Amino acid sequence: MKLLHCADLHLDSPMRGLARYDGAPLDVLRGATRRAFERAVDLAVDERVGVVVVAGDLYDGDRDDFQTAVFLQRQLHRLRDAGIRVVLVYGNHDAENEITKRLSVPANTHVLASAAPESVVFDDLGIAFHGQSYRTRTVDEDLSAHYPGPVPGLLNVGVLHTSLDGRPGHARYAPCTVDGLVRRGYQYWALGHVHQREQLERDGVTIVFPGNLCGRDVGEPGSKGATLLEYDGDQVTAVRHHDLAPVRWHHLAVDAHDAAGVADLSAAVMGRLEEVRDVSSGTLDAVRLTITASPRAFAQWLRDAEQCELQLRADSAGGDTEVWLERIDVRQVAPPRPGAPDDARAAIAESLAALQAGEDGTRRVAELLTGVRSRFGAEREAAVRLGALGLDDTSVTTLLEATRVLLDAELGGGA
Prior knowledge:
Elements: E1 2-6, H1 26-30, H2 32-47, E2 51-55, H3 66-81, E3 85-89, H4 92-95, H5 98-102, E4 109-111, E5 118-122, E6 127-131, E7 155-161, H6 178-183, E8 188-192, E9 198-202, E10 205-209, E11 225-232, E12 235-243, E13 247-256, H7 262-279, E14 284-293, H8 295-303, H9 305-317, E15 323-332, H10 342-357, H11 359-376, H12 380-386, H13 395-413
Parallel strand pairs: 1-2, 2-3, 3-4, 6-7, 7-8, 8-10, 13-14, 14-15
Antiparallel strand pairs: 1-11, 5-6, 9-10, 11-12
């Protein structure tokens, strides 16, 4: 027998900051959370699972979009028509959502109560679920401490939206401990809230965060999807992750420290992107590049950053949209080229250091940044290509470093 465990659907979650990306595949990105859930339903039907369990956060914050509710209902009815039951709890995002308050779920779907923990038993499937939905967004008590005892002879599954004992980047909701979950006597814990997949085994108990169904930005990289559980009687026999996201986000570091110029830098990038393409299967790979360039290649890039970036984006597209470069950061970390006149180099370094440290110099550079803001306005990406990464005081260091690199390249002989 089989169970599909997913969490953190965040249906129709807005993809943050897409407007600033010229040429971004907006339709794919904006529809990604819906497509991921459709794939989860497809998987449940294909695998003939008995139950789909959703461990919270179906929606996103206070969104009140009737079309989101219609889409969810359609998917729940697909599961109903396939004879698949659904058990879900509401998480912190669902608790404040207007859709939650109005949604009437079909007969195959059971929403675990928020007033107190409850159990749902399917004797014909040999499985019992225990859990509690959030009543309010902020839950700072250990809900699991009050969950009912296990039902003998069945597979017992605890359903909980929680940060467990704390996970970086996630609010501390419904805190609990691994030992506390193990003591409840269940064989499997279907958790939600943490967007990175995690699987723990302790004393015969399997505890799983499946992660969210689809990463929503580059801060949620890697494989995303759901967990397929197989069980025999009251024993878990197999646990497998299934990648379901139509968009996969990546951080790629490219080493081009020995590049003779931008052409070599681009070749190194394309080599790394091919590695991404090799594992892609009908998935848009959104990539943030961090390129470590030689002084020569970095200087060439700075001289015509916009054209270099446009060319790299065109090359990476490869005639399709399977790879999209979300952002390109080029840095020069190699030591200065030998052979430049030491006295000239020292004089430049001294002057730039004085400019950066002195109040008058800082003021003048700040005035420059004000001009950049005025010139580019919302066109932040253009300012990024000039090196004014944040358009704030920290950009002083960035601009001065770019100046030093360009001058150093000239002294080093025609970089």
